[in-house]
Amino acid sequence: MQPRTHVTLEDVARAADVSLATASRALNGMRVTPHLRDRVLAAAEQLAYTPNAHARALAGASHRTVGVICHDVSDPYFAAVAGGVMRIAGDKDLLVMLASTFRDPEREIAYVSMLRAERALAILLIGSGFEDPHWERALDAELKPYLDGGGRVAVVSRHRSLKVDSVLPENRAGAAAMARALLDLGHRRFAVLTGPPALTTVADRLGGFRDELKKAGVPLAAADIVEGPFTRDGGYGAMTELLARGLTATCVFALTDVMAIGACAALRDHGLSVPGDVSVAGFDDIPIVRDLTPPLTTVALPLQQLGEKAMELALTDNTGRRRRILRMGGEVVVRASTAKLA
């Protein structure tokens, strides 16, 4: 048959009815059950799939290549962290291969598998882990042989089961500090816009905020917590749902700045002002939020430094492979999006 143009690994996985990770392992000669390997190879032959020649060429220069896997490079949070990685990599004359998973656990595992096949010098995972035992086992199964073979791995954010070097933003402590700051402004009725509960970042930020409110005797009911994607549109949709329920909160805390930006837009579109009608706060301090009208109250993380430190850990010899953990705190920055109540 005539070769199809732009046949991807995802096409092969779909045709073979297997995950991306399984397809990648089968095509790269890694361990996979015979019947699954046969299905993948048959699908690849039928589709005339050809592995990316450029990636193969890079494999020959693997000692100069670093793989960075993040959730979504279009999100300013990940762009800033990746920028820190690239600054250190550039100083070391290393090539960075950047991939976005869009918070798909299977895609993350597949990218790790592909970077193993390309024999990258190091793999960096930038972004929240998943509260998912299946994902944890599958990712560990990919990383262990890579580490045993001399590969280096570092992660940014909490990955509970991975025994690798980690740079941990203090998400729980930062959210608790935000709760205290908002309480000090006089707020006692809150709502929270949260992301997917499977993300460890959500568990840490929501948990820290809720626990600090509880210490102050301030309730946060289930109806006051609205879930949406960690995106601007996710924040807009969650805020719209909260308004439909009947907004009673004087302050809305979004677990990321991009969600907070969407929330402010939804409030504006519903004829409400920030902070005149309701205060809004976020988390991360991505560069754009200080230029909003009004500028956003948030927890400022050293985003570029998170990437720099992860890259430095990955490039620093770790004899004995003892897990190194570097914690980096955030600071509440109160801006005009939150009003002080009498």
Protein architecture, described:
The chain is an alpha/beta fold and 342 residues long. Among the domains are: 1-51, lambda repressor-like DNA-binding domains (434 Repressor (Amino-terminal Domain)), CATH 1.10.260; 171-301, Response regulator (Rossmann fold, 3-Layer(aba) Sandwich). The chain is built from twelve helices and twelve strands. The strands form three sheets. Strands 2-1-3-4-5-11 form a six-stranded parallel β-sheet, sandwiched between helices. It has a four-stranded parallel β-sheet with strand order 7-6-8-9. The protein has a two-stranded antiparallel sheet with strand order 10-12. Strand 8, helix 11 and strand 9 form a beta-alpha-beta unit. Helix 10 (232-245) crosses helix 11. The chain is globular. The protein starts with 8 loop residues before the first helix and ends in a 9-residue tail after the last strand. The relative contact order is 0.12.
Largest sheet: 6 strands, parallel
CATH topology-level name of the domain at 171-301: Rossmann fold
Number of helices: 12
- Strands, count: 12
Keywords: DNA-binding, Transcription, Transcription regulation
Pfam families: LacI, Peripla_BP_3
Protein name: Transcriptional regulator, LacI family
InterPro entries: HTH_LacI, LacI/GalR-like_sensor, Lambda_DNA-bd_dom_sf, Peripla_BP_I
